[in-house]
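Exercise 7. Predict the joint structure of the components listed below.
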Amino acid sequence: MTNKNVFLKKLCMTRSEENYIKIIFHLGGNTSTLISTNAIAEQMATKPSSVTDMSKKLAEKGLLHYKRYQGVTLTELGVKVALSIIRKHRLWEVFLVEKLDFTWDEVHEVAEQLEHIKSEKLIDQIDALLGYPKYDPHGDPIPSKDGEFLERDKQLLSDMPKQSIGVCVGVKDTSTPFLKFLDKNQIALGNTIKVLDIEDFDQSLSILINNKKLNISHQIASNLYVKKQN
Amino acid sequence: MTNKNVFLKKLCMTRSEENYIKIIFHLGGNTSTLISTNAIAEQMATKPSSVTDMSKKLAEKGLLHYKRYQGVTLTELGVKVALSIIRKHRLWEVFLVEKLDFTWDEVHEVAEQLEHIKSEKLIDQIDALLGYPKYDPHGDPIPSKDGEFLERDKQLLSDMPKQSIGVCVGVKDTSTPFLKFLDKNQIALGNTIKVLDIEDFDQSLSILINNKKLNISHQIASNLYVKKQN
DNA sequence: ATAAATTTTTAGACAAATCTAAAAATTGGT
DNA sequence: ACCAATTTTTAGATTTGTCTAAAAATTTAT
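Solution:
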């Protein structure tokens, strides 16, 4: 048994604590990014005052660093805990889709419950049963027992072929004009985008997003990351 | 969807409430047996005063009948809820043993967690994946979606006469030491057991199992259920 | 039948996780 | 640098499930 797992075993965490750690990880993902109280509150669908209370408790437990009015960062231990929860969540998602015929939109709610089941043997056996998958049904990477994982293969929208479908996962250019353009056109993280056509003349794209057809320039498309489906 | 399932869907129950209902069912099993506050407290490993509080709450919700100083009985709805929890618990136990190589003594703790996962589709698909089993790994019957189940015609090994043959179908004692003993001696559900001899002095038995002769105490034999062969 | 023993309930407290409302600190615009 | 807006924290309350200690009801024994 690794050193990490000894720590995880000793730590007894409530469901609520685990959800905070998971959300904080998703908002930052490492030990150096400061996450604000309000951002956490919004993701947790709770009030900032509740977040402050929980931040103090989790800092007390050594899972994050907290400084008044500054925000929090995960400790190394906090990252390990987050990865172990995410590992469980994503493995359960694969299980539900592969073994129990769940559709992609049905898995999340159930996986949110299953990720809190406490049994090392359980999740390791599920992992084995599934053949040690590397990605979940949404294409997100599944951390190994030791917390290692491969970042998913995302690509620029401009590199997608005609008729392909992807989910918007990030931007390359982070300038204000570009982000404003995205806002104005209601292009947001998580949106599904289908490439309808690519114009030979200027490589501009005709895409389907939010059930609406939209034409965007090659320059726009070459600054949007998508995760290709299938 | 049956009427019952409509009710179960509307009822939102906490984990603690579900555990009370399950324990009360195990102590009585029907709508007419009065269960005492102390008995529940002992099984729940809690104090009688806590049981009183919870009894009032569950009566309020229509799951049981409660009269001061008398005890409680389950309502019809309470029985249905209990059966649905027991169904989940036992199906998960089969899953853990059949699909994930858990041993008899490892399943209980994890099934205690899994039985509270809320998803009708999840448990129905697990049921299908397992081929709609009728009995769990301890030989206890699994209620159907409609709450019906067949108690098995079984008897204690200690009540079998010399030279009789039976098939192991369950255990009376489900404690870890007993289950570990069975694992160690390769006594498992489905094994055929022949009673070779019964010692007058201490009622210990000499049995034939897996084509091997084995001596077991009367105490062991009185905690093993077998189904007698014609 | 009545006193003693037991069981059950009540009353009041506590911990966890949340909330609201108000106070304090930080940030941003001019 | 200062005022206004925003963010964050504090203080105090609420809910759920539990506890202890004491009171009340029931059961048992003589």
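Discussion. The first helix of chain B runs from residue 3 to 10.
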